[in-house]
Amino acid sequence: MTELKNDRFLRALARQPVDKTPVWMMRQAGRYLPEYRQVRGQAGDFMSLCKNTELACEVTLQPLERFELDAAILFSDILTIPDAMGLGLYFAEGEGPKFHKPLRSEADIEQLEVINTAIDLTYVTDAVSMIRQELNGRVPLIGFSGSPWTLATYMIEGQSSRDFARAKTMLYTQPELLHQLLDKLALSVIDYLNAQILAGAQVVQIFDTWGGVLSHSAYLEFSLTYMAKIVDGLIKQADGRDVPVILFTKGGGLWLEAMANTGCDCLGLDWTIDIGSARHRVGDKVALQGNMDPAILRAKPEVIQREVKRILGSFGKNDGHVFNLGHGITPDIAPDNAKIFIDAVHEFSSSS
Amino acid sequence: MTELKNDRFLRALARQPVDKTPVWMMRQAGRYLPEYRQVRGQAGDFMSLCKNTELACEVTLQPLERFELDAAILFSDILTIPDAMGLGLYFAEGEGPKFHKPLRSEADIEQLEVINTAIDLTYVTDAVSMIRQELNGRVPLIGFSGSPWTLATYMIEGQSSRDFARAKTMLYTQPELLHQLLDKLALSVIDYLNAQILAGAQVVQIFDTWGGVLSHSAYLEFSLTYMAKIVDGLIKQADGRDVPVILFTKGGGLWLEAMANTGCDCLGLDWTIDIGSARHRVGDKVALQGNMDPAILRAKPEVIQREVKRILGSFGKNDGHVFNLGHGITPDIAPDNAKIFIDAVHEFSSSS
């Protein structure tokens, strides 16, 4: 394979010193970029864009043309697995993701089959291969999946939810049934992420968007257990390099110690936790990724720069930190402000 | 004043031993009760019910007729202060609270005046007086208010919000303006809660429903500072008894140490934190209130009982714990399940 020209991101994930703190942004290929909106218009709806290898590759690379990012992330959705399982993912205009056929009975769950990525989700691995080739060693490529619990919430609710009434009712009244579902999803995620790694993903991230709605004990039993199972089941090396795994539970700041014990390499942090206190709690066990509130990107350059400096200072050393937002960049952000953010990370962390 | 027949709640707030762990439920007077729905139907809309002294008193007392609760809480809304400031609170059917005149300019904020409860919110103090009289010493009465930050989010957004874009934009781009608003709100809350105490409230709780959407440093600066100011400004004793203050920041589990340093008496906990680890962190500085996930009330009696036992065991002693849900009880819960919950708390914590 081509030599990697910028390995800051991989070095930080391995907790090795770096010349500058690496940075990327969740949802960096997205609606805040006019060039993205143009391609999206061409493709039609969101899933058509995900399924079009050339266009998915194009939008993945777009932010790298504008900004000095240290990683690329596959353009896709966290709900591709339930879609491949037959639930019929769609996006109603102005609303979040929905399923035509949400899980409504025990039989629905019993009949679900673990996916085979090589048959069911070739559009994803095709995109990974093409992006990796097009990147040509510029920066590492991140593959990703939703966590089993997060996928289950959407599959049970049929869409996003305020209080996850259906999913939690199943958790408390039919825990075995939920475990059956989560186990199928964990096996599917393992297959899916391993296929992405074999196709060229050099790092993988598991997005546990809704782990934070659970109680401490329910989180351990219904979300973290399955993420740990995935970490165990992943290919450890590809192209002679380790393949690091990042776990990101939004709202998971209370549970970092348990997350760090899964064997993962890095924890994603949302903005509610002070990154210095997070580092103190996990020690050198894992790297940390985060954690600026994306809302700060609406502020003046000085405010963005001050916050970047504060977070770098709070983390306090030059190894083991991947700078990122605490959640995805929102469509209303001016690309110039994203550039100020990214440049500030490199400037203020520069060891020279 | 009448002698208090059940002081378990006050004893627990003072971290004194109790015969049984006291329990109440956030939103215990609410839509899950058929007798509430009937009175609500009589009153018309939600605010008409709040403003009708007799009916507000009636629904406050309803859950005490059904369940062995150890406290009553004033039936009202957290948004009475902004309504009194002229923003025009209303509830559209099936939606959350909204304002006819949200804050849209600097002038809107500059023109706001600190409320005078004795003039602007007599319907609240009238209800407190009547409820206290009708309770006749049965259990203590809790008064409450929204926190300044939480009130500000609704006032700026005009309604609840997914990402609080307007409020956060103000926080990061016009922090002085937001501080001006928060200061007016803190002074209003002090006046409001002191008026409730003088009218008969024996405990007060500050609901910081949206503190948890802030970063660690923004929480300290824009939410906790103002709650601390309120704690400082409250009347400390009434009827020869201390008036304890409970702070509840939903999603505030990472910040307990700072909250405990405000001089408050008790911290409300949502269900995401293990109450034993919370107690370990705050020591004997404050009592703790919480923290069962209200979703568990949908489960079978055995599951509810097991969870009550687990939380009691995690807290681990018989002083300083007020049992509660981690958030309000939802309208879909069967009253019988609420009874199972409340009885379980008393049964499993009984020292006899």
Automatic annotation (TrEMBL), chains A, B:
First-listed, main subcellular location of the protein, grouped into a coarse class: cytoplasm
Reaction catalysed by this enzyme: uroporphyrinogen III + 4 H(+) = coproporphyrinogen III + 4 CO2
MF terms (GO), sorted A to Z: uroporphyrinogen decarboxylase activity
Feature type site, description Transition state stabilizer: D77
Name of the protein described by the UniProt record: Uroporphyrinogen decarboxylase
Source organism: SAR92 clade bacterium
Residues binding substrate, per UniProt: R27, Q28, A29, G30, R31, D77, Y154, T209, H327
Similarity field: Belongs to the uroporphyrinogen decarboxylase family.
Keyword Lyase: yes
